[in-house]
Design a protein that fits this description.
alpha+beta; Aminopeptidase; five-stranded mixed sheet
């Protein structure tokens, strides 16, 4: 049985960055420790990380944020939830989500939003088992503007 602790932080200790990068890469989002250091410096001040720790080993993490827009009230969001493969189905993700819910309530938010890729059906089942409901079906569109600039063929401005 793991001696699991959830640590809430804004700035993880330096020795944890290689472990965080490895977890993120394992989850399908390749990263180097220096990438994470740089990104962390530019995150909004209110963002938090929850680290699932066993001793000095990072088993997983959740990145939390408060989202603000014109369409909705302020909402707490789990931007990322990553648990290392050896520790999945062992309660680590469940503990991270419970800690995220506590953080959301403590910070005055009544909703917790999370997003997951449509192909991650195991994640869908996990969230549903925790009481989450599917709230939207959306598509995400991206355009690489650097490629457009290099091709020197910007789209025409709208009239």
């Amino acid at each position: 049985m793991l001696n699991l602790q959830i640590v809430r932080t804004r700035h993880p200790p330096e020795p944890y960055f290689p472990q965080l990068a490895a977890l993120q890469t394992e989850g399908g989002y390749p990263a180097q420790p220096e990438d994470l250091r740089r990104r962390l410096e530019t995150l909004p001040r209110e963002d938090r990380l929850l680290l699932a720790m066993s001793g000095e080993t990072v088993l997983g993490y959740a990145h939390l944020r408060v989202t603000r827009d014109l369409l909705n009230e302020e909402t707490a969001e789990v931007v990322a939830l990553v648990v290392g493969k050896p520790w999945r189905r062992g309660g680590v993700g469940r503990r991270l989500i419970a800690a995220a819910e506590s953080w959301a309530l403590e910070s005055g938010r009544a909703r917790l939003l999370l997003r997951t890729d449509v192909v991650r059906t195991d994640a869908h089942a996990f969230y549903i088992a925790l009481g989450y409901e599917e709230a939207a079906t959306t598509l995400e569109f991206v355009r690489d503007l650097e490629k457009v600039r290099q091709a020197d063929r910007p789209t025409r401005p709208m009239p």
